[in-house]
Amino acid sequence: MWVNPEEVLLASALWMTERANPYFILQKRKGHGDGGGGLAGLLVGTLDVVLDSSARVAPYRILYQTPDSLVYWTIAHGSSRKEITENWEWLEQNLLQTLSIFENENDITTFVKGKIQGIIAEYNKSHDIREDDDTDKFKEAIAKFRKLFIMPEEEKLVNYYSCSYWKGKVPRQGWLYLSINHLCFYSYLLGKEAKLVIRWADITQLEKNATLLLPDMVCVSTRCSEHVFSVFLNINETFKLMEQLANIAMRQLLDNKGFEQDRSLPKLKKKSPKKVSALKRDLDARAKSERYRALFRLPKDEKLDGHTDCTLWTPFNKMHILGQMFVSTNYICFTSKEETVCSLIIPLREVTIVEKADSCNVLPSPLSISTKNKMTFLFANLKDRDFLVQRISDFLQQTTSKIYFEREITGSLSSSDDEQGSALSCSPQRSALSSDGERDRQFNLNESRVPTATQALMTMYRRRSPEEFNPKLAKEFLKEQAWKNHFTEYGQGVCMYRTEKTKELVLQGIPENMRGELWLLFSGAINEMATHPGYYEDLVEKSMGKYNLATEEIERDLHRSLPEHPAFQNEMGIAALRRVLTAYAFRNPNIGYCQAMNIVTSVLLLYAKEEEAFWLLVALCERMLPDYYNTRVVGALVDQGVFEELAHVYVPQLYDCMQALSVISTISLSWFLTLFLSVMPFESAVVVVDCFFYEGIKVIFQLALSVLDANIHQLLSCKDDGEAMTILGRYLDSVTNKDSTLPPIPHLHSLLTDNRDPHPEVDIFKLVRISYEKFGSIRADVIEQMRFKQRLRVIQAIEDTTKRNVVRTIVTETPFSIDELEELYTLFKAEHLTSCYWGSTSNPMSRHDPSLPYLEQYRIDLEQFKVLFALLFPWACGTHTDDLALRVFRLLDHNADALINFREFISGLSECALSRPKMHTPDYRMYLRLWNQETKAKLENMKDLPKLNQSQFIELCKTLYNMFSEDPNEQELYHATATVTSLLLEMGEVGKLFCSPDDQDIKLEDSSPKDTAMSSAMLISDDETKDDTSMSSYSVLSTGSHELDDKLQCEDIAEDTVLIRNGGPYAGAGHHGKAGLPHSASIDKDWAITFLQFLASVLTEQALVQYFEKPVEISARITNAKNVRKVGHQHMSLSDYEISLSD
Question: Angle, nearest 10°, between helix axes 610-619 and 535-543?
Fold first, then answer.
């Protein structure tokens, strides 16, 4: 291929010249081709690998040089002699004569370089090749990667690194290639080649370790092996990328979401020296955006644009605080260098003015940002202030346009509601309601909209003590005043300065009537609610009256949600809870509804308005507790593993005891899923929720460790898990909130405990303080690192459990052993994953649904089945394999959705691969049904099988000949088949004499469909143009019975036939060919045989009987399939097994 001209100083070093003329030289790399070049070739090959030379993938090149110059230019390179020869011949024919005209060598060089660049540009234009952002060096690496590991173009290389791979005690220096779906390694040292391919989805453990011998090494573990890589130039960058790619693979296993590249990234400069790919930049940007969103609790789709060092003037302490400014599409954020000093979030929707202030020595390059609530923020020491102002102005303009557009859309919808809405809008919050009539006013009843509660349920059902003012109320009043003073000094709302003082106020407890507002603020839910006006009401309206599995589970759990609280002892609270849970189930069907969501949501409804409670639930499920509430509670299981790790570090003396009793795994799920709401008295647990919304999951870990630490001596003396659970249960029941103004609410858990003396009271605020003092050093980034490690373990354990459950379910239905079924399941799943990576004819989302029963979670389509058919089925040989695979697939696809699950796949394989002792058993019906299109009516009696007409019979015989073509007893089988064929032809002729005209009409009905509305297939073929080895067409017999009315009338299987089917799942499955030709006149429409006649005739030939009764060794086929997939098959897919290394 032509390449942009590059200078070469030493033209002959490590290259051999094969052709030359005055201007061009064709060279071959030493050591390439026949003979390998001896010792010199081995050394050159080793150098190419170690030094990452492009010669490994392109061992031929063409150089340009003028006669009097010492400088050479590479203008083309090729992977084969044929490719490079084509370029050479073009140069001789089109350029050589032209160059002799020039007199000036500089003109010749300019002309040649311009001509080559023009050819490349024209090629890219004609082939619609879009200019990408990858450097030439990286494009060489991509080509090398695809050639070495037989990867298709769909497999995207992210980056590659020099390292050593340890095989036994011997290190192999080479290159580690990290692509979206695979980890690959290649080494070539002195003639010894080593290759390794591991699918990210198969990695069970990924760790960065250090030993005395190897200070930096990465260990990669799969289910069956462990691999060690070391001697990295930048191990931190490499390991972070490996973590990110493994995370993407786990996400794909979890919810089937594949990787989609972000094409909106800005391009690199043209002559960028970095060998970084666009994909690597994309993944780096994603990682930064994820950290940014987590730090400031921003919506999931927010993308970080950039960040810069700066200072922020803080009016509350009259200081310039050093930190970083972050700018994204919709937000400007700031965090101080010292983590807890100050942080700030400014939504662009709140910004009114962005202007550059005057610079001075005290305040260089200042930037002033004003908001709608009259707050002004002053940033200074900005390095590139002009560029920053321009970026913020661009984003601000987009935000303004978006807000204006939303108002235009919603304005017309809400204008008619304004008059009625003003009359029915809720009154200000009240401390108590005197009647049901007043409660009814707390709902928004705008026209046809469904009613939604516009007040927190706590304000409707708050019960005061007889004394109007008592010490508890006085303390609550002081808390409210402290927060109001804080708002005055630090600002109120989303743009508030968040400081150490804010944290102190949260730890002292948020006042009852401020909880909803502050939960919304600290969780970031306020941003999503502000940017989605009317979304919740629309969702409620759409979901009302809809029923599915999620709504059934919701109805079942409604009355179990905080039943001890008066707000949920009547229909108003229950109805609000139903609306929020149902609306979320419809917003996120991947989660739908999970137990424990009802408990958390009921508490949210007590303190927040209904719409606010919905957005708080969104923040919990989708950001703050990721994957907690899906069908397999993966997030909670991951954090359970993290908690075990933390317990091992912080309470080591208790860890072994807890592990032996299996207590940690039991307690952590209930503690984490409900944020302690189900195990602590209500008024104490809401204090935990206060801290959680401010600090995140680290608070839950801290508190859980504190509970263990407080009971360490009692737990060490426990004999069993029941005793340990009782101790912890009694302790948590005793946690009290003495500041609560609410009347005591009986705690359901405490009612069920034993009658022993209650545990001494534990103050919740003291417990929280202790958790910060002892375990406050736990950092969010450390938790995320632990989560990654545990996520690999949990998801792979779930996959292993799924495999065991599938095998256990069908092991009694098939003749295969458990080990064989597990191997087959691995191959089946690998084929599914391969199609997810590299495209398929069907949507991966439709083929993998974790909510389905185990047996149906993974399904494959026809193209994937063809691959497995060729590898595993005994009938796969010769030119007919794909057509026979199509027929078997149709037969197995019981519900005609063009997908088959593992049970259907195994049933087909067991029928084909394992025969029975006697051939006259009914199992052979399946074989004939392949040619009769029995995809819907399953006839149990052989006598009920439809007859074969002459076209179908000819096709059956030709297929049999193809099947026998590679058998050791090929000739004997051919003779037997010819004998049976002759006998059956005679039977058919004789049978015609005994058929009445009425029977003939029924049996040999014309193959054209009578009802044009039926979904049918029409065969159009010309048999006379076929040779003996091709497969002729046949039309399917129609019996005229009601059971077969909707069958296909005929099918194509030949190269010159076309299958036409209206709307069926297999439309277009046939080959391309002629159209418009009538059926061949040589087919005798009156001729037919029955299955019993065919079976009886076959039984007369011992060779055929032995062939069909010979069992197939499926384990050998499985081993062969694994070996074939190791080196890639015709679809260029790789298996989930590692490629073994050559010695």
Answer: 90
For 628-672, give the DSSP string.
TTSTT-HHHHHHHHHHHHHHHHH-HHHHHHHHHHTHHHHHHHHHH
Distance of CA 96 to the CA centre of its chain: 54
Give the C-alpha separation, 491 to 501, whole Å. Answer: 13
Render pLDDT for 164-221 as a digit per residue (tens, 0 to 9). Answer: 998 777 788 889 999 999 999 998 876 778 889 999 999 999 998 877 677 788 999 9
Report DSSP state, residue 1141. Answer: P
Predicted local distance difference test score (pLDDT) of residue 767: 95
Measured between alpha carbons, how far is 525 from 688 in angstroms, rounded to an integer? Answer: 18
**Of 38, 106, 120, 43, which is closest to residue 76 (Cα–Cα)?**
120
Q: Evaluate if residue 1003 carries a pLDDT over 60.
A: no
| Helices within 216-315 (DSSP H only) | 235-255, 278-296
Does residue 1143 surpass a pLDDT of 70?
Answer: no
By three-state DSSP, how is residue 322 classified? strand
Q: How many CA atoms lie within 13 A of 702 on its CB side?
A: 22
Question: If we measure between CA atoms, which residue out of 825, 823, 819 comes closest to residue 806?
Answer: 825
| Nearest C-alpha neighbor of 178 from the set 162, 192, 164 | 162
Q: Residue 158 in contact with residue 277, Cβ under 8 Å?
A: yes
- Give the tens place of pLDDT for each residue, 615-643: 999 999 999 998 898 878 899 999 999 99
Residues 112-121: pLDDT tens digits?
888 888 888 8
β-pairing, 376-380 vs 304-314, is: antiparallel
Query: Do residues 626 and 635 make contact, with C-beta atoms less than 8 angstroms apart?
Result: yes
Three-class SS string for 366-431? CEEEEECCCCEEEEECCCCHHHHHHHHHHHHHHHHHHHHHHHHHHHHHHHCCHHHHHHHCCCCCCC
Compute the 3-state secondary structure of the chain and give helix, strand, coil in percent, each to the nearest 5.
50, 15, 35
Q: What is the three-class DSSP state of 238?
A: helix
The distance in angstroms from the start CA to the end CA of the chain is 34
- How far from 137 is each of 4, 140, 596, CA to CA, in Å? 12, 5, 53
Task: Say how far apart CA 1093 and CA 286 lie, in whole Å.
Answer: 67
Helix locations, 914-969, DSSP H: 925-929, 950-963
Of 414, 338, 351, nearest in space to 377 by CA:
351
b/e burial code for range 1094-1127 (CB count within 10 A of at least 16 → b): bbebbeebebbbebeeeebebeebbeebbeebbe
Quick check: helix, strand or coil at residue 308? strand
Q: What are the tokens at 135?
A: 């450097």
CA distance 815 to 807: 12
| Dist. CA 929–CA 921, nearest whole Å | 15
Distance CA 497, CA 127 (A): 55
| 131-142 burial: b if 16+ Cβ within 10 Å, else e | eebbbeebebbb
d(CA 798, CA 632): 9
Contacts of 618 (CB under 8 A, 6+ apart): 525, 528, 584, 587
Assess contact for 866 and 885: CB atoms under 8 A. Answer: yes
Cα separation values, 221 from 226, 793, 795, Å: 4, 11, 14
Tokens of 138: 């990286």
Please name the residues in contact with 983: beta carbons below 8 A apart, sequence gap of 6 or more.
1097, 1100
1050 Cβ contact partners less than 8 Å away, ≥ 6 residues apart: 1007, 1017, 1018, 1019, 1033, 1034, 1035, 1036
**Closest among 299, 856, 791, 849 to 590, alpha carbons compared:** 849
What is the pTM assigned to this prediction?
Answer: 0.76
Q: CB 798: neighbour CB atoms within 10 A?
A: 16
CB neighbours (10 Å) of residue 123? 12
Q: Which helix (H) or strand (E) holds 802?
A: helix 780-810
